[in-house]
Amino acid sequence: MSTILSAISFVLMFLAAWPQASAAVSGPAGGILQIPSNRSLAHCITRCGDIDFSYPFGIGSGCFRQGFDLTCNHSTKHPKLFLGRSTVQVTNIDSSYGIVLTPIIFKLATRPGTNTYNMTWEAPAKGITLASYNTLFIAGCDFDVTLFKYGTGDMVGSCMSRCAGKKAPTGGHCNGIGCCLIQLPRDLAAFRAKLVSTNTTATQSDWLHPGIMALVSSDPDYYSYNTSDLFSSWTNDSMIDGAVLRVAIMDQQSCEGAQLKNESYACSNGSSCRNS
């Protein structure tokens, strides 16, 4: 399974939000707002389990740009990395481009007589978005899916899956037979997917899998043509190629004001700043 991070060409983007607190040497929870020296970062942790990271991401006071803090959980057999104090797990990270890979998975147990189900996802903090080159895959039988921008009701995509009275296939293309997909049209800070069953008389035992499974992946071609891995992911989450999140710097009032502060201005050649 390919890793999307090796082919990423997007740049870290500086988003200046209005209004925001004025710049300072340090921010909430130990985040820093100036460009640090290598010496000042020498004591910082740069690895959690098998995941390496570097500034602006970091763990501990003085080791990360405000909004880029991480947590390494050592309570499991293999340490797990998370964004801040959220439950959003990080499975890969590219510090240079400000992007992280995270699993976004939904497993719905369907019930006879119930025809509407909802799946929601929200970014854990301001400045984090689900990148537009991700795709939502939904595996199961006889349902219509509508994807909305969460909180606004704006529809951003739809698809349908049919099984024609048969069990869901275990392979082949994700082409509307036991599986459908929605390409995200733009970056999203949150979404809601509404699933409407078109066969409310079926029981879970009628299908090959107990309900509906959905996931967001940054590798649309892989799952579009390899649905066997998509169905295998029902019981084995490690099979899933995660979604890409963008993490933007949002600690200044405006681009114009940020450019006047050389000690904290985060944009470099090849990156951009825009007012949000």
TrEMBL record:
<dbReference type="Pfam" id="PF13947">
    <property type="entry name" value="GUB_WAK_bind"/>
</dbReference>
<feature type="signal peptide">
    <location>
        <begin position="1"/>
        <end position="23"/>
    </location>
</feature>
<feature type="domain" description="Wall-associated receptor kinase galacturonan-binding">
    <location>
        <begin position="44"/>
        <end position="97"/>
    </location>
</feature>
<dbReference type="GO" id="GO:0030247">
    <property type="term" value="F:polysaccharide binding"/>
</dbReference>
<protein>
    <recommendedName>
        <fullName>Wall-associated receptor kinase galacturonan-binding domain-containing protein</fullName>
    </recommendedName>
</protein>
<keyword id="KW-0732">Signal</keyword>
<dbReference type="GO" id="GO:0016020">
    <property type="term" value="C:membrane"/>
</dbReference>
<dbReference type="InterPro" id="IPR025287">
    <property type="entry name" value="WAK_GUB"/>
</dbReference>
